[in-house]
């Protein structure tokens, strides 16, 4: 059984990301656009208010992508927060685009990767993006990762990128990527109910590399009933917490390199998420939660959008 951080006194509030110190609870911008991550939000002012409140609450790590909307989340971030606080770290991702039907086709050609980084820079109003993640297709790719990382490494050398990360990778792919770049972070599907990336968490923890779980509370297109799991809901009721807070607290206790980016379009939910940094689950609760999922099973669910 892997270990946990068992008390708030042992939980560090920050961790290095691409040479910057970030708080371990950040914000993911995927839920800011309209339904199915398509089009503008129902309430633009509310979306901008969520971003501003996140920064007020101490968030200094925001995760976004040009293909959220498309173009919507980046535009909202710039409208809400530019000029950006000095300590704010923005991470984006490339490797996919949106088609006219709202699909998520891969965009892995060198010229596409380069163009999409520049699009993110322009939309966000930045000269340099702190982290750019290469999103590897769910089905994998026959192209060596060195060839995909090459254009991003060139942009890093040119001062346009602070660090290169990878997303949706196996341990073997993570190791392969590490031969071409100092991996800034790994983003994989991972939650208390879906631990198919357990080996990747272990590897990044050993290497001191940030691991950023996406869909930490499950999603409609996965098989992971995080918020409805009876163990999660029972502990939440006993502790007078929300199921989301319990699930996030388990992740926060998983290891000091685990950085959370829960997303929401609601200030109330944002404040609930941020309160997790004050919640310490006891060893018995952590063990019960860890038993929800077999860490050796494959990541479940249907085809997920490039989180």
CATH homologous superfamily descriptor: NADP-dependent oxidoreductase domain
Which class of secondary structure composition applies to the elements? Answer: alpha/beta
- At CATH's second level, what is the architecture? Alpha-Beta Barrel
Number of separate structural domains: 1
CATH fold group: TIM Barrel
The largest sheet has its strands arranged as 3-4-5-6-7-8-9
Q: Name the overall outline.
A: globular
Question: How confident overall, as mean pLDDT?
Answer: 92
Strand content: 5-15%
The count of β-strands is 9
**Strand and helix order:** EEEHEHEHEHEHEHEHHHH
Which oligomeric form is depicted? single chain
Please give a structural write-up.
It is built from 10 helices and 9 strands. It has 307 residues and is of the alpha/beta class. The chain has one domain: TIM Barrel, CATH 3.20.20.100. Strands 3-4-5-6-7-8-9 form a 7-stranded parallel β-sheet. Helix 1 runs parallel beside helix 9, helix 3 crosses helix 4 and helix 7 crosses helix 8. The radius of gyration is 18 Å and the shape is globular. The two termini are 28 Å apart. About 4% of the residues have low confidence.
Give the key terms.
single chain, 307 residues, alpha/beta, TIM Barrel, seven-stranded parallel beta sheet, two-stranded antiparallel ribbon, 9 strands, globular
Structure described in brief:
This protein has 307 residues and is of the alpha/beta class. It has helices spanning 44-56, 72-81, 110-124, 145-157, 171-178, 198-207, 230-239, 243-254, 267-274, 283-290, and strands at 14-17, 20-23, 27-28, 61-63, 89-94, 129-135, 161-167, 186-189, 211-214. The protein contains 10 helices and 9 strands.
């Amino acid at each position: 059984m892997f270990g946990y951080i068992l008390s708030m006194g042992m939980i560090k509030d920050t961790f290095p990301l691409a040479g910057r110190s970030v708080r371990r609870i950040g914000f993911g911008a995927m839920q800011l656009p309209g339904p199915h991550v398509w089009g503008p939000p129902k309430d633009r002012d509310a979306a901008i208010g969520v971003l501003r409140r996140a920064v007020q609450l101490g968030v200094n790590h925001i995760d976004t992508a040009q293909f959220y909307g498309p173009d919507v989340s980046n535009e909202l971030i710039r409208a809400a927060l530019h000029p950006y606080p000095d300590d704010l770290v923005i991470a984006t991702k490339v490797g996919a685009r949106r088609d006219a039907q709202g699909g998520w086709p891969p965009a892995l050609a060198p010229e596409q990767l380069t163009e999409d980084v520049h699009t993110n820079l322009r939309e966000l109003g930045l000269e340099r993006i702190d982290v750019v993640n290469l999103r590897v297709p769910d089905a994998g790719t026959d192209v060596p990762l060195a060839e995909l990382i090459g254009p991003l490494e060139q942009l890093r050398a040119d001062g346009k990128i602070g660090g290169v990360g990878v997303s949706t990778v196996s341990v073997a792919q993570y190791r392969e990527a590490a031969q071409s770049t100092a991996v800034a972070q790994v983003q994989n599907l991972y939650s208390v109910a879906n631990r198919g990336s357990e080996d990747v968490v272990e590897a990044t923890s050993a290497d001191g590399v940030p691991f950023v779980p996406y869909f930490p509370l499950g999603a409609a297109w996965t098989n992971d009933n995080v918020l409805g799991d009876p163990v999660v809901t029972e502990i939440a009721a006993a502790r007078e917490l929300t199921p989301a807070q319990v699930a996030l607290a388990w992740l926060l206790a998983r290891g000091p390199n685990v950085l959370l980016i829960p997303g929401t379009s609601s200030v109330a939910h944002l404040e609930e998420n941020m309160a997790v940094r004050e919640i310490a689950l006891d060893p018995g609760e952590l063990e019960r939660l860890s038993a929800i999922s077999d860490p050796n099973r494959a990541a479940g669910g249907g085809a997920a959008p490039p989180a």
